[in-house]
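STRUCTURE:
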């Protein structure tokens, strides 16, 4: 565990440990013509450091725009003040991962079929590799990474006991966050830092912790699922021949649903990174900037994700859609749907699943999930999926006419929960835990970049209202 009492001089004079490098090689299974993920990340370190040094040297005094009072009191929305390598979100073109759109990623990244598993969708392992390295992995590299994650996925006994001690009535996200924080008992970064590792090497044990955590998240989630809802095998069984999500789906008792397995692969992959300004990603980065280990940093991110304005949104959408279906029936007319939309708006409520803090076009993640629904007969025929698809056509004109929504188009939450519900995964409180498994593959790679580039602790300047008024009055 991280010690808070070791003198700094002792930290700096101690020999840097190498146990994390040994753990990496022991946990990985090499293929003859492939590199490990650690090797792939190590290759980009010099170039990334040189790129940042060039930016500091040439552009430190360049302006990125003015800070207005509306930014300060409006949640800092839109301020360009955070470095984030994995993805960029544009108001019109949507999300890109190291320059690749979601459709491009679906075309280029290895799928389940590419590593010999049933299914057609991209693997979260493929997205993880891309977010960490900026490069598309080979099929062999993804298979190797998948096997590495399986080898790391078993929970320590003391973590199982901690999870089992939680009351069933404790919200699954609270359990999830607490269990993730507890995993820092075995943090390689915390141990290396306490022994005096060089600052230039911080990224290495951070990477090891991040891969370990991503590997264990499905087991944490499935044990919580079993304890709270009584479903799954209760043992977090891991089969090294299966990919990360295939194992997880078996662990929660849905392993016979090929459609749900493939949907969760896509869901986890495209939910992973959404640039750094969202609450869960930013909280992880902020806490990590204090050199907290990845377990503590991501636990903070999960606490932000648990908020109703962030990760809980998809279950709110599903709840509203079920209310709509309950009132107008399974086969409503367009007019009945439009009338219900107006009823919601006139009551002072928002239509959940529409609008976005940045996007001014339909969310490409919604588009990807909708296209998935079109490929599966069982989803095309499902009444709640059909209703959500019709809403995506009927709601924007109503919202435009209402005039209070900057972006009247569906976001990803408009579709994600309804598909889970259609496949029988109807435990609403667990939906944000699924989101938490996903967001790790975006937030944790950035933590590796933060350490790779030696970014400082984050500490913005705050003002009181009195101080603010003095500034703007002059």
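SEQUENCE:
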């Amino acid at each position: 565990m991280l010690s808070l009492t070791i003198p700094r001089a002792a930290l700096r004079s101690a020999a840097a440990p190498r146990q994390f490098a040994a753990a990496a090689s022991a946990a990985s299974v090499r293929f003859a013509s492939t590199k490990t993920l650690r090797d792939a990340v190590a290759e980009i370190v010099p170039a990334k450091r040189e790129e940042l040094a060039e930016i500091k040297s040439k552009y430190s005094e360049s302006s990125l725009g003015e800070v207005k009072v509306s930014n300060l009191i409006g949640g800092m929305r839109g301020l360009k003040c955070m470095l984030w390598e994995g993805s960029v979100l544009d108001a019109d073109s949507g999300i890109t991962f190291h320059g690749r759109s979601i459709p491009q990623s679906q075309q280029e990244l290895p799928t389940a079929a590419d590593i010999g598993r049933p299914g057609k969708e991209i693997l979260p392992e493929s997205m993880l590799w891309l977010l960490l390295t900026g490069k598309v992995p080979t099929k062999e590299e993804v298979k190797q990474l998948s096997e590495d994650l399986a080898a790391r996925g078993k929970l320590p006994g003391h973590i199982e006991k901690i999870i089992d001690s939680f009351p069933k009535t404790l919200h699954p996200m609270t359990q999830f966050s607490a269990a993730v924080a507890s995993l820092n008992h075995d943090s390689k970064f915390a141990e290396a830092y306490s022994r005096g590792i060089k600052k230039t090497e911080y990224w290495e044990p951070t990477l090891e912790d991040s891969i370990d955590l991503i590997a264990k998240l499905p087991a944490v989630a499935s044990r919580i699922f079993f304890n709270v809802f009584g479903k799954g095998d209760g043992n977090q069984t891991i089969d090294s021949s299966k990919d990360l999500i295939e194992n997880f789906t078996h662990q929660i008792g849905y392993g016979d649903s090929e459609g749900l397995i493939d949907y969760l692969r896509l869901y986890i992959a495209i939910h992973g990174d959404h640039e750094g300004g969202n609450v869960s990603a930013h909280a992880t980065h902020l806490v990590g900037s204090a050199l907290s280990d990845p377990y503590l940093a991501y636990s903070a991110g999960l606490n932000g994700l648990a908020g109703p304005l962030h990760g809980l949104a998809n279950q709110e959408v599903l709840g509203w859609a079920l209310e709509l279906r309950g009132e107008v029936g399974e086969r409503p007319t367009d007019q009945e749907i439009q009338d219900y939309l107006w009823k919601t708006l006139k009551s002072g409520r928002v239509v959940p699943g529409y609008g976005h803090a940045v996007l001014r076009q339909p969310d490409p993640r919604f588009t990807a999930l909708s296209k998935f629904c079109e490929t599966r007969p069982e989803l095309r025929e499902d009444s709640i999926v059909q209703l959500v698809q019709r809403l995506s056509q009927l709601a924007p004109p109503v919202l435009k006419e209402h005039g209070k929504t900057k972006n009247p188009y569906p976001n990803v939450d408009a579709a994600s929960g309804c598909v889970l519900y259609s496949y029988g995964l109807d435990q609403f409180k667990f939906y944000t835990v699924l989101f938490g498994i996903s967001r790790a593959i975006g937030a944790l790679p950035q933590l590796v970049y933060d350490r790779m580039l030696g970014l400082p602790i984050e500490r913005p300047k705050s003002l009181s209202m009195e101080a603010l008024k003095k500034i703007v009055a002059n």
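REMARK: Residues 15 and 196 are 6 Å apart (CA to CA).
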